[in-house]
Amino acid sequence: MSNLPTIFVDEVGITLGNIADAASGAITPTLRIGVTGLSRAGKTIFITALIHNLLSGATLPGFQAMTQGRLIGAQLTEHPDNATPRFAYENHLAALLGTPPTWPESTRRISQVRLTLRYQSDRWLKNRMGLSTLNLDIVDYPGEWLLDLPLLSKSFRQWSDEALDLAQRPNREEEATPFLEALKATDTMAQADETAAETLALAFTQYLRASKQDARALSTLPPGRFLMPGDLEGSPALTFAPLPKPSHAPRSNSLYAMLERRFEAYKTVVIRPFFRDHFARLDRQIVLVDALRALNAGPEAVSDLENALTSVLACYRQGRVNPISRILNRRIDKILFAATKADLLHHTSHAKLEAILNRLVMNATRRARFAGAQTQSLAIAAIRATREGRIKDNGDTLDTIIGTPEQGQVLGDTTYDGETEIALFPGDLPDSPESLFKTDESTPELNFLRFLPPTDLQRSETGEPIFPNIRLDRAIDYLIGDKLQ
């Protein structure tokens, strides 16, 4: 079940891909999990932590296959897709274990990695020894690319109207003004000119990037490849911008007509291959949501994040399928919504964070469940950067988090040097998530900073470093636990 229009060629490509997956999994079953979220939601950290915990056999109390002693082990195996870059697990782990440790680079393109899990099955029909194997393919892709999927159902005119309406809203005025002024100075009905197209595309891209910064933390910023162009940077397919409605039918050689053709080319060259080759072939999905960043920026950012999540999650092919029909028609049967960076809050606020997440994805959850898919929400930290403590303040006892803010982080009049450990009271999340959408005295004062990775890690019995986490075990169990029975 998806809102996306597809063409015959798309469906043929999706079916052929599913058949190829089924053939390769005839001996060893394969589960494909998509990991996504808007930038800085923690995708790379989540995947690195997931892989490391499974490879090292770290203790994961909420992961039933492990606590029951049925998980024999895991190992990285041959990369299954020669056309997709491999997730650079080793490089990301090295960054986290460096001196000093640093967070790994953010996701900027699609990547994939395969883990093979060996486990003791409790279903004796699998084989006489009860030992089974599962290939776990983890597909990592920027959430900004998801924002492009709804464009498949829109014309250039429709997208332009929506984009310009957003750009003219008061909360985007500062960032959008240079682009809007460049647009006013351009005769879009004049003969097509490459310099004019590049000028508008650059101004539009700069507006999108400025809106994405922490001060605004806006999310509804398609086209996503304008923010993460990869090897398409500078190509005609990425050199267009929204234009106002023309007063008369544009000539085929006009600037307007050229940018309209490039918008359609963007859909053909960029969006459809992503949807066909990767997105439509997933079995399960975790959506990482950096709700705290939006809360820090205020009600407009929270509302914009809700709109972005609702829009992109309507694009999923969701629902249950039986093993036979799955060969031709893959569906996502489980979605996990995860509010990341729970370590920036005291544990007493985690239930409120989950309530906020549930409010943000309310519409998407209803749609998924109607289609037959299961959903769950969790507040997590795949790698915990803080610990908890308490401080006295004017006779009151405050629950705090303790850690070292990244260099350049600012709170009030203080700019942190990246070396000083602090105890921070991040503020109280509201009892009602609805208050976060209102700009009035009910809006809570919140303080969320970015902290450096943990140091002085504990070691497992085999000497492997153990990263502290919050509910990573429960996330893993929800995503793959039923496949290890």
Could you please describe the fold and organization of this structure?
- This protein has 485 residues and is an alpha/beta fold.
- Helix content is 35%, strand content 16%.
- The chain has 15 helices and 14 strands.
- β13 and β14 form a beta hairpin.
- The longest helix has 23 residues, at 255-277.
- The model is unreliable at 324-328 (pLDDT under 50).
What portion of residues is helical?
25-40%
Regions with little confidence, pLDDT below 50 for 5+ residues: 324-328
How is the biggest beta sheet arranged? 7 strands, mixed
Q: Total helix count? A: 15
Q: Looking at the structure, what is the overall shape?
A: globular
Termini gap = 28 Å
Strand content: 15-25%
Radius of gyration: 24 Å
Overall pLDDT score:
87
| Helix-strand pattern | HEHHEHEEHHHHHHEHHEHHEEEEEEEEH
Structural class: alpha/beta
How many distinct beta strands? 14
Across the major sheet, the strand order is 2-3-4-1-5-6-7
Set down the secondary structure blueprint.
Elements: H1 8-24, E1 30-37, H2 43-56, H3 64-67, E2 71-76, H4 89-96, E3 111-120, E4 131-140, H5 143-146, H6 156-167, H7 173-184, H8 194-212, H9 224-227, H10 255-277, E5 284-289, H11 291-297, H12 299-313, E6 334-339, H13 350-360, H14 362-371, E7 374-379, E8 387-393, E9 396-403, E10 410-411, E11 414-415, E12 422-424, E13 458-459, E14 465-466, H15 472-480
Parallel strand pairs: 1-4, 1-5, 5-6, 6-7
Antiparallel strand pairs: 2-3, 3-4, 8-9, 9-12, 10-11, 13-14
